[in-house]
């Protein structure tokens, strides 16, 4: 099948699928649309994972889902077993297709996510959360909201607050810079405060991401700061992140800014990251990810993405990019579909498949 024919067929499939289904997960675009921090919808202040009662009982069914029945209002996604214990899950199945013969092995169905959440609320300020994934990755942490300015302390295994926690792990700032599961979590302590329109967090960690035990006596540290402002219909935010640890005999520093702009049906998110190793035999790595969403109707949004990676900024070759276009449809509070057509480009044709290629992806998401 020619790429043009693939694109046409896939676009039709996406729109038909979209006419059937909304979503709720670690989607920074929702934070931008509401001009709020991730804590508005998630148990974890850093975003991602289990949704809180406000999101599951109000925002998703009342304001986001395309179609909602009477039985799905007032407690649809994220069930409470009791006043103290609630559960949730995210199941994402991916179908990938590429017309290039060299990539036919990737034309398969892949269970990209299967997470089970348990949340224990121990009074008004103290809670514990468990997230277990099918890849062996997990997060397990306790939190206490005991600091000034609505602040918290978090202790256990978690993903450090850094940049945008995009649901799409293929975004270069997550995948290429080491934040994709199962290497995304670490053991340590984190503190965060929310004075006014700003958010600050700082983490002290083992520096052994994805490992059960630490292998040395060197700690890692992470910092994140964000400023948000609403000016009439315009929501905007600007922030910066920093992460430093010791890996494979080298000091690794990761840093960069992130932002969002939201006005009316349009939402633009972006993040830039740079990785430096000391000592290093190569130059620094640079990654950029941007996402534009256009909300057509409630539950249905068009999505365009651009990702760029330069693995060695001191060299002129080796750069790659991914440009994507598709649609996201949250049909009910429990069911979502995401279709994307991605175009990969490699400088000087340097690619594992022997050159540039295109790839279609369809994700079916069940959430609870």
Structure description:
A 16-stranded antiparallel β-barrel has the order 2-3-4-5-6-7-8-9-10-11-12-13-14-15-16-17. The relative contact order is 0.17. It has helices spanning 3-18, 28-34, 53-64, 172-175, and strands spanning 79-80, 85-97, 109-121, 126-133, 138-147, 151-158, 186-193, 198-205, 220-231, 234-247, 250-263, 266-278, 285-297, 300-310, 320-332, 335-346, 357-367. The protein contains four helices and 17 strands. It is mostly beta strands. The chain has one domain: Porin (Beta Barrel), CATH 2.40.160.10. The model is unreliable at 1-25 (pLDDT under 50). A hairpin with a 2-residue loop joins strand 9 and strand 10. 11% of the residues lie in helices and 50% in strands.
Brief summary:
The chain has helices spanning 3-18, 28-34, 53-64, 172-175; strands at 79-80, 85-97, 109-121, 126-133, 138-147, 151-158, 186-193, 198-205, 220-231, 234-247, 250-263, 266-278, 285-297, 300-310, 320-332, 335-346, 357-367. It is mostly beta strands.
Write the layout of secondary structure elements.
Elements: H1 3-18, H2 28-34, H3 53-64, E1 79-80, E2 85-97, E3 109-121, E4 126-133, E5 138-147, E6 151-158, H4 172-175, E7 186-193, E8 198-205, E9 220-231, E10 234-247, E11 250-263, E12 266-278, E13 285-297, E14 300-310, E15 320-332, E16 335-346, E17 357-367
Antiparallel strand pairs: 1-2, 2-3, 2-17, 3-4, 4-5, 5-6, 6-7, 7-8, 8-9, 9-10, 10-11, 11-12, 12-13, 13-14, 14-15, 15-16, 16-17
